[in-house]
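Suppose you are handed a protein chain with no further information: no name, no annotation, nothing but its sequence. What can you learn? This example shows the usual starting point.
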Amino acid sequence: MSSMSSVAGLSKYITTLPKTKFSIIGMLIISFLMGSTYYLIDLIPNHGIIEDFIMGGLFGLFVIGISSIMSGALNQQVISALHGINLKIKHSMFLSALSMVFLGVISLLGCVISRAINVDVFVNFAIFGCVLIYGFNTLVFWATSKVRFSVAAITGLIQPVLILSMYILITFLFIDTSFMGSVLIQIIFKALVAAIIFVMAIYAFIKIIASPFKKNLGIGVLDLLSLFIKHMNEGSNSLETIFENMSEAIDTIVTFVSFKSENGIKALFISPSVHPGPLGDIGGSNMPTILANKFNHFTMVAHGPSTHDFNPIAVSEIDKIEESVKRGLEKIEYDSQGSKFIRYSCEKANIGVQFFNEGMVILSTFAPEAVDDIEFGVGLTMMAQSRNHCNVNTSVIVDCHNSFTPESGEVLPGNAEVFQLIDVIDSIDPKQETYDIKVGCYEDNMNTLDKQEGIGESGIKTMIIDVGGQKTAYILFDANNMEIGFRQEIIDAVDDLGIDEIEVMTTDTHTVNTLSRGYNPIGIAKRPEIIEYVRLSIKEALNDLEKVEVGTGTEKIRNLNTFGPKNSTELISTISSVVAVSKIIAPVLLITALLIAFIWIFFGGF
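A reasonable first move is to predict its three-dimensional structure. Written in structure tokens, the prediction is:
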């Protein structure tokens, strides 16, 4: 698995939260039950089980339930008024509900311990719980809402202050009228000092992990996290502004094959050496669909040799690829001749080769072995080797990207796979008979499937190329790789449809990577339904066959703003190192702070 996609896997922690009404109903029910439980096990005997249940329930409802609902509304209003992001009312209510449950559990624990040791420590446990939820709320607001620490720290006070105030008020009015004076001052003083201790530990922790991002990349880690969450929640592309500050302009290439009928271009097959990432709709993640939609004819955008280093930092960068392709189409020369599709193998490397006019297409796969992206430099080597060996002007290299496991690694310079690719290219017979060409096309958005099944916006695109009576199916899924073994299952399932050769490819779109998995390859679910789409597309493409002329081309893409080799590696290594260090620092720092706060609350103060 590539490092960038490992980081993309963090998206699995972004989940759909319950609606506001469910959080409110949950708080009302849970707070009532917690209050009832507290009264039933309280040290002081009351009037009876039923009355204790009701009175305790009302106590819990008002002290932690109503207070938490109020804080949920106030938190959202305060953060929004101070230009924070991400905290919608459902998020705020869920956060208050979660904090309320934390506090309730800790308070009940104090009640049980009080009962066991016959000493009332309930208030101290309640204070400790309020300190915990204060730190938790402050951390969430600061890390996700793009507000200053001072704003987060003040907003984080709302829920614990409301709960403590309601507890003091209810206790004074209905339970113990002497509950004032030194006891009140002691509660406030204990809570204030403990809160300062804990929140300062959180501040120190965030500053420690933020330092490498600012030093190495010049970006704020909390800005990165906040805008990432905003993208996951709202589809916002604001994260691109951060990538622009760390982008690197590169020159790369795009290769293509154009098939023209009497009515103009019938089909366009494009292989850009640009990576469709990093995830969601950020940068070039939806490049295969966006680029294809810029042309008025059937267009397949395959996965060219490139890694996450070549992720465009903004959707607008895709325009540069379009301009290069259109510039190349103006120069293209057409001819009616092409060769049959032939497969070659060397150890794990497998390629399918077809010559068109003065160019060739090489469909590269390591199936049934699992391999991830082919690096751009390796792709350039393959192009140069194949052009020289086969005496062609254009070599369209396609990374079929059709055999995945979580351990899949990239094909990088120095890997054994590189030499296997070179050797298999050297085995190509450059002298092939040529014939007239017919092409048939079909596309289907696969509307009954979606990102959950790994299907991107463009669904499936199929092109049948008939050369000398041999019919070859080029099947392209808008997906991010394919479960290992599914390619062969598809091939076996269509052998009765009158085609002679078939290759199954994916675009490597990263729009499908916003779900529970960092990777979301096609073939995890609903394989029979996907195969039916393949069969239908082949049948329809066969019915669309017509005679065409063909031309190939290669164009440079200049000044494409991407992550770049340096910054992409720096970002991944920084995130990886911060995660590794955090596993050590966070427990030590936060547990130490909590221990000090605990000792202060229970053994310090007055």
